[in-house]
Structures are given as structure tokens and as C-alpha cells.
Amino acid sequence: MARTKEEVLELLDKHKVNYIRLWFSDILGQLKGMTITRSEISEVLEHGQGFDGSSIEGFVRIEESDLEAKPDLDTFMIIPWELGEERVAVVFCDIYTPHGEPYEGDSRHILKKQLQEIAKDGYTAYLGPEMEYFYFKYNGKPEIIDRGGYFDYSTVDAATKMRKKTASALEDMGIQVECSHHEVAPSQQEIDLKYQEALKMADTAMIYRLVVKEIALAEGYYASFMPKPIFGQNGSGMHVHQSLFKNGKNAFFEKEDDYNLSSVAKSYVAGILNHVKEFCLVTNQWVNSYKRLVPGYEAPVYISWGRRNRSSLVRIPMYRVGKENATRIELRSPDPACNPYLAFAVMIAAGYDGIKKGLKLGAPIEENIFEMNEAERKKYNIDTLPGSLENAIREFEKSELMKKTLGEHIFNQLIENKKVEWDRYRITITGYELENYLPIL
């Protein structure tokens, strides 16, 4: 049952909360919002809060600036620690025009539309992202705080303590944590969340990034979801586990198949592989994203699928008897600095397009693709992801599916924003150039 305004007000009074934060996202996935006092909360919960959207990235022009944030009461929660000297509650909002229509620049609305689209065929999408990040001492450049490796563990390590505090805070907010561990690179961490319905998971991803950063800051450190913050080390990915359910059953499971994958699952994977170059701009949206997507650092760059093969773009986790609902596919290319609403929307749209068109999935690649030479990759018809933000823009611009999924407003705004980013990067004189060229040219 949907949560009511009266239930929210009762919780605010019970926990002596005087402020509520109204949250939403710009098109780049940056958390935005405003704080409402207790005296105004009742009115805002029912009717929403007007605001000027002209300075929000990817929103409206000055002459069309009036927008309204309407709280989704099912997302209401109380922050389990004090911010300053106050207890604060938060709620995610949907953005509307002054005429009461959903705003086409609202990322959350785009994901909701895509989920409504697959619901026409009875499908519900469940996702489980693995969002990696780094802890740093930060003085203008990233300074690692440990030299641990994959699954290293220490009860006295500062990073371990912060990771534990973060997991506890998420649990206190009603967000289920499956496990947490040190990742491959020094100072790199991962906290895995239990899979959820796609919209709730996108909201959760936004909260997760905030909580990670808040707790690190409170401990005197900086947490970063930058895809590739350290030269020569693995970058941070966001491997996204995905499945579709229909009539309460996992539509991806097929007992008799060699991979335990249904025809629906195979067409979904085929759709992902068919469109992945087009949606890279959404799942890997920064110049820095393409510093991670290079061979040799565990990041997938080759468009293929396999079961045990972690060099593949799409991996099929092994089926365990009695765990049919856990049958899923894992897309390994996205990074955690994306907009989760848009990223989830385009992944689901790509997979669903494969289902609707009945796309056939080619043979899996179980060999280590990283060790193949160019001729071997050509033999297996293995294509590659875009190698730069510029190339990702070009692939995105050509995609009718991306335009349909995101709507013309976000589609065009994203292209414009990313072209500006690429131009700024392109004209920047880097330390690499000064170090290598200035002495000899």
C-alpha cells in the first residue's frame, strides 16, 4: 500500500524531525533538492513545491523556468544520523510542469516511462548494481589511505571502519546490504546492495553515493566515484545485475537450457549487445569514463558474452539449484558516476528491444579476450566499445532507440552538454603533454 501524508506527518512528529529534504536529479545524475521546514511540510506533501529550474543542468530555459517538485511518499525516510544539530528526513520527488504534466527533463520520469512500457507485456525489472568507489586523503590530488587488495580485511583499517559504518547507516535507512569488501585497487571499496525493483534501486543508488560520501567526510576523508582516479590501477565500475519477472516468476530462467537462460533472457542479452555502443554515453558519461574502458584493468571493452568469463561485457552468473529467482545477466561496462535513472532506463530499453524483435544471441566467448590479438578477435567478430567520449557521442547521436527512450529533450540536452565537456577537455593542456613534449619540441 502507498504511504499516506498522515503517516509521514506522524513519523516526523514521532522522531522530532523539523526539516525534510526534497530530492531530485539533474540529467547528469547529480543530486539536487531543497529543504522544507516543519510548518510547510503538510502543504508540500500534498501539493508539491515550486522552484526555478533554469539553473538545473539539462532542465529548462529561463523563460520556461517554473517547475514543481511533488514528493513520492513511498520514498520517505529519516536520515539515521544528525546533520548539524538536527534530524532530517528526505523524500524523492517527481518533477511536473505548471500545467500538471510530468516534466520531460526529469530523469526519474524517464525511467518510470520505460518501466511502464515493459509492464504492458507483464514484465517487472529487477536490478542489482555493484558500485565501486575509492577513499582518499584529498589535497588537490588523490592520496590513497591503504594498500589493500581484493577482499583484504583489517579490523583496524580506516577504510574498513568507514565501510562498516556506511553499511550500518544504509541498513538503518531500510536499505538491505548483502556484503561489503575491499576491491582490487588500493583504497578501492565495494558495498553490494540486495537487488530491488528498478525505480527503487535507482533511488537507492542516489542515496548510496550520498551516504558513502557523508560518512567519509565525517571521518576526515573523501570518497570518490570517479571512474578512473589513479593512473595504472583498476578503475571503479558499476556492474549491473538484471532480470525480468513475469507473473511472479523469473522470466530469464529456463531449466533445460545449457546456461539456464530462457529465450527471453537470450534476446534481452542480444538487445544489450546490439545497442551497447549507442547507450555508452549514458552509462559512461564522462571524459574520465573512457580512461577506465581500456584493456588490462579488468574493465570490459569487448562486446561479447560468457558465463565464467569476466573479460566479457555481459556475464551470466552460475545457476545454483533452487535459486531460480537469482538467474540474471550482468552488464559490466557502466561506471558509478552515471545517472542511475537514465542508465537503468537505456539498459532495460535495449534488452526489451531485443525481446520485442526476437533477436538471436550468438555463441558465448569463454576464452580470455584480453589475451587475444586483433586477428583472433576479428575471427570471433568481437566489436569494441567507444574509446572516447567523442566516439560515444557519435554513436549516441545516431540512435533512434536512445531518442525514443530518453525523449527529445534529454536526448538533445545530453548531446549538447557532452559536446561542451569534450571541447573543454580537448583544448586543455595536460601534465602529460607538458612532461613529454615541452622538453623536446
Give a quick set of tags describing it.
441 residues; alpha+beta; Ubiquitin-like (UB roll); Creatine Kinase, Chain A, domain 2; 2 domains; 11-stranded mixed β-sheet; 6-stranded mixed β-sheet; 12 helices; 37% helix; 21% strand; globular
**C-alpha Rg, in Å?**
22 Å
Share of residues in strands: 15-25%
- Rough outline: globular
Terminal residue distance: 69 Å
Q: What profile does the largest beta sheet have?
A: 11 strands, mixed
Q: Tell me the structural class.
A: alpha+beta
Return the CATH architecture of the largest domain: 2-Layer Sandwich
User: How would you name the CATH homologous superfamily of the largest domain?
Assistant: Glutamine synthetase/guanido kinase, catalytic domain
Question: Quick check: average pLDDT?
Answer: 89
CATH topology of the largest domain: Creatine Kinase, Chain A, domain 2
Please count the beta strands (DSSP E, at least 2 residues each). 19
Q: Total helix count?
A: 12
| Total domain modules | 2
Contiguous runs where pLDDT drops below 50 for at least 5 residues = none
Instruction: State the share of residues found in helices, binned by percent.
Output: 25-40%
